[in-house]
Amino acid sequence: MSSMLNEAGGSAAARPQIHAARRFPATIGRFDDLADRAAIDKLTRWVEQRYRADLAERPSKHVYVSTLPEPAIAEIDRLRDSTLIRSLIAARVAPGSVIAPMKHTDELYISHYNKDRGGDQGLFDKHYDGNLRFLASSVVVRALIYLQSDATYKVVFDDSRVEKAFETYDFGLLDFHRELHWVEGQYNPTDRQRILLKCNYLVTPRNAAVAGRAALAANTAVFYVVKAAMEYSKSPRTPAERAVGFLCNLFRRMNNVHPLIPLALVAGVTTAALAAAIWGVSVL
Ligand SMILES: [Fe+2]
Fold first, then answer.
1. The whole model's pTM is what?
2. Rounded distance from Cα 98 to ligand 1 centre (Å)
3. Segment (H or E) for 170
């Protein structure tokens, strides 16, 4: 996690505060500052050059920001750590909350609307990004920063009753675990790509360091496992890739009902597999 910690609400938080986390309301913003827009334009030109071959392909692509060259990371830092975004988050969480960027999970995302039933179709169907909405003491806010986009598709943030056809320089903030959202629009296999940044911020109560570290560990673990499964099974060709893609979409639908259902299923299957391995019994 970044060392850049930020407290919401300034002077209002001299005493320990333990708030049950509520859903962070989906919030729309826009970079109007010319220097910010110059950073976005510069990043877009670099992405179009660096990922020319990937942009010509249909599947979506995620790249961890931490793996990019230093100049690109510096431009992304400018946007992620902007006062504009941080102040919007701070205004919508409990006074005194600690807002910590989760830079190790931030991604550059080249998006193509996708209907191939692979692991990344869930990016467009109804879904929650995360499955830890039962962790009451923390919130993960995700910023979708649109480096290049047109208004072809609309994102619906259902819980907050907010909709937006994002264009270049727009950004959206949403609750990673608690906002049911999806993409709407006429599916066009030859449409232009969108280029986004996905940046995440962990919001915890002031003076809740232990709970904060636990929330960070849980979020990081789930994030990497889910991301690896989605990447493995996007545009599936082999039976194994199709199977993982099926599970990704099955778990997403289960998570839409309740986050503990897919976790319980995984625990049950794991237990059964261990039992079979230990006692040599067939459970399937
Ligand atoms: Fe999403």
1. 0.79
2. 24
3. strand 170-175
